[in-house]
Write a structure and sequence with these properties.
Helix content: 40-55%
Oligomer: single chain
Number of helices: 18
Low-confidence stretches: 268-280
Radius of gyration: 32 Å
């Protein structure tokens, strides 16, 4: 391409039709024709990398030759002080991001572009939930060591749940570091809780299942609580299939194949609620679970009696219900039965896994039905309680002593 050496001014730029125009007054200041556009640059050799670089100064028509010249002079001044103009420009961009982008804005508009996998939505939801009061602050003001450690020290739930939150916070911070929205890495040092992997799984024994179902019937009957009619169906479904609470709330009529006696926990099941937008399965993969005729019958009866067309357990508006649909009547029943501290709703999923394991079901089959990523997770259902151990010892001793 042709190179012309003239002073870069409005007249000479207008007359430029091809190639490069190099300014005769300021070394490195050029105007180039690229795809019918005339672009201004400052060309220089980096004092850091010793490589040739060019700093974009703008497009003719959007900036004038005079404005481009002033920007080139500033860049030349930086270069004369052994500074790299592009590096200094990027530093300013980072400073602006750090000073102006709030945590709320970052989660809404930037996180998804910086997270390599597809869990940006769940990370944003977690951060919003636990760090809501910091949403209007910058990333460094919100997700710093002090704030994350305060949250950790005040957390009252299960340690494994806290660790999942800490992992999500770390993901958000690494994304912010990658995008130049923060330089503070301190919160990455907030430690996870130590979790006892040998902790006994809480589940219901068969007599407790019977007690629970009778308690639900008693609650519905004596309290005339028609609002809790759904609880018996939901509890039966959780015990019979191992579905998670969120999967039950996302459960659709189309997820049931009554002919083949199979249900689907669908990864793509998304229902908009007033305060949440939730994905179906935890793993992000659909799975298929066989059901018995008994399970199919009570599901069919429930769907028919309620006129369900989309969701099996919708709210009054026909949309995805809040967790309170389950937790409120569930807690009242547990308090009546003195089971409140012995089991939570997720324990019904553990009950399904334990009963399946006790029935000598293949571990891989249990893994597939429960949607576990690894057999190590499924293996926790191979536990044995103290009563079963005692039965084994008694049989051994009776065999020895006759």
């Amino acid at each position: 391409m042709a190179v012309t050496r003239k002073k870069i001014n409005d007249t000479n730029v207008k007359n430029l039709t091809d190639g490069t125009l190099r300014d005769t007054d300021l070394k490195g200041f050029v105007c180039k024709v690229r795809r019918q556009h005339k672009l201004f640059y400052y060309e220089y050799r980096s004092p850091i990398t010793k490589q040739d670089r060019k700093l974009p100064l703008g497009r003719y028509g959007e900036v004038t030759p005079t404005q481009a010249r002033e920007a080139a002079k500033k860049a030349a001044g930086l270069r004369s002080n052994n500074l790299d103009p592009i590096v200094e420009r990027d530093k300013k961009i980072v400073e602006i991001k750090r000073a102006t982008v709030t945590l709320d804005d970052f989660l809404d508009n930037h996180l998804a572009n910086l997270v390599e996998n597809d869990n940006a939505q769940s990370v944003a939801k977690t951060v919003r939930r636990y760090f809501k009061k910091y949403l209007g602050q910058t990333i460094e003001g919100a997700l710093n060591y002090v704030n994350v450690m305060k949250w950790r020290n005040a957390y009252k739930g299960e340690r494994s749940g806290a660790n999942r939150t800490i992992s999500d916070v770390r993901t958000a911070i690494r994304a912010a570091l990658k995008g130049g929205f923060t330089t503070d890495r301190s919160a990455l040092d907030v430690p996870r809780f130590k979790v006892d992997r040998n902790k006994q799984v809480k589940y219901l024994k068969r007599d407790q299942i019977k007690l629970l179902l009778e308690g639900i019937d008693d609650y519905i009957k004596h309290d005339n609580s028609t609002k809790a009619n759904h609880l018996r169906v939901i509890v039966n479904l959780a015990i019979d299939t191992g579905l998670r609470q969120s999967e039950i709330l996302n459960f659709k009529v189309s997820d049931i194949d009554f002919d083949k006696l199979v249900i689907r926990a669908d990864a793509g099941s998304r229902q908009q609620n007033t305060d949440m937008n939730t994905t179906g399965t935890k793993s992000g993969h659909s799975r298929y679970i066989p059901i018995t005729k008994h399970t199919a019958d009570y599901l069919r009866e429930w769907i028919k009696s309620r006129g369900c067309t989309t969701l099996v357990f919708p709210n009054r508006k026909g949309k995805r219900a809040d967790r309170k649909l389950i937790t409120r009547p569930w807690e009242k029943v547990l308090n009546r039965l003195d089971l409140y501290k012995k089991i939570n709703f997720h324990g019904l999923r553990h009950t399904f896994g334990t009963i399946a394991a006790e029935s000598n079901t293949d571990l891989v089959a249990i893994q597939e039905m429960m949607g576990h990523a690894s057999l190590e997770t499924t293996s926790m259902y191979l536990h044995t309680d103290m009563e079963r151990k005692r039965e084994v010892i008694e049989k051994m001793q009776s065999g020895i002593r006759g």
